[in-house]
Amino acid sequence: xxxxxxxxxxxxxHKQLDFERRVLQDLSLEKIEASIHNRFDHYMALVxxxxxxxxxxxxxxxxxxxxxxxSMGRFGFYGEDTENVFQRSVLPFEALxxxxxxxxxxxxxxxxxxxxxxxxxxxxxxxxxxKEGFEASLRRWRMKLH
Length: 146
Known about the structure:
Strand content: under 5%
Shape: elongated
Distance between the termini: 34 Å
Structural class: mainly alpha
Radius of gyration: 18 Å
Number of strands: 0
Largest sheet: none
Order of helices and strands: HHHHHHH
Oligomer: single chain
Helix content: over 70%
């Protein structure tokens, strides 16, 4: 009998892509755009020539935070509370937050007091989308759609 040689990394990559496709069905671009408008219009006014680039990057980071949160849904399904689950993903979240904050610092290099507000806005924005992804995934797990 001849066995099939499998590349497990390729298999894992395909499973990850399938998971992301299923999860992204729950994500609304209109909600992301509204969230960008609510959180970052003040900062986009500082860079009017690059506002579209800033919007695109905000949407990209929202998507990444959403996917990070959705990858943690199974822990919530099995009984962990949201804060404990968030602690499991704090390292990738902090990396995402650092990159996002650096992006905004590059476009809106301003006084340090504004940078503190910007850092908090970035963190709240990403946490909001992490939590959206987590809750969407938790719903999928409860409905057995994972």
